[in-house]
Amino acid sequence: MGVSEGRIRNLVVGLVVRDGHVLLEEYPGDAWQGSFLRALGGGLEFSERVVEGLSREFREELDVEVEAVRSLGCLDNIFTWQGRPAHEVVHVFEVASPGFDAWPFERRVRVPDAPTQAGWWPIAELDGRDVYPDGIIDIIRSLEEDR
């Protein structure tokens, strides 16, 4: 997770909801904050379209090809990271991949180049957890209701 002081980061994340669970990335705690969950995705590269960045991030993080099913909106995430102010604009998409249908709910996958793991989390147990970006829990719940 990169933070650029004085700059707004442009991110894209994807949500997969299945049988009351959502696929998220777990970050370990550190001196500034306890562990937290975050939607999978990351920063857009210059001249990269949003859906291209979404696909690239899932390939890099999980070695999975995804399809952007639909845009779920955009979140304005202003926060403090390791004592520094940060600001992200986050494009949120519903994504699909046949590979996720076979993933067991207890499976955890280490994300390359990060001290994180991706896995399924029961949506009913997200209350009381730090889940980012801000506002993503409401989008997850509305996505689950659509099922």
Summarize this entry quickly.
The protein has helices at 50-62, 98-101, 136-145, and strands spanning 8-15, 17-18, 21-27, 36-43, 67-81, 84-96, 108-110, 117-122, 131-132. The protein has 147 residues and is α+β, with helices and mostly antiparallel strands.
Secondary structure: elements and pairs:
Elements: E1 8-15, E2 17-18, E3 21-27, E4 36-43, H1 50-62, E5 67-81, E6 84-96, H2 98-101, E7 108-110, E8 117-122, E9 131-132, H3 136-145
Parallel strand pairs: 1-6, 4-9
Antiparallel strand pairs: 1-4, 2-3, 3-4, 3-8, 5-6, 7-8
Description:
Helix content is 18%, strand content 44%. The chain is an alpha+beta fold and 147 residues long. Strands 1, 2, 3, 4, 5, 6, 7, 8 and 9 form a nine-stranded mixed β-sheet that branches. Strand 2 and strand 3 form a beta hairpin.
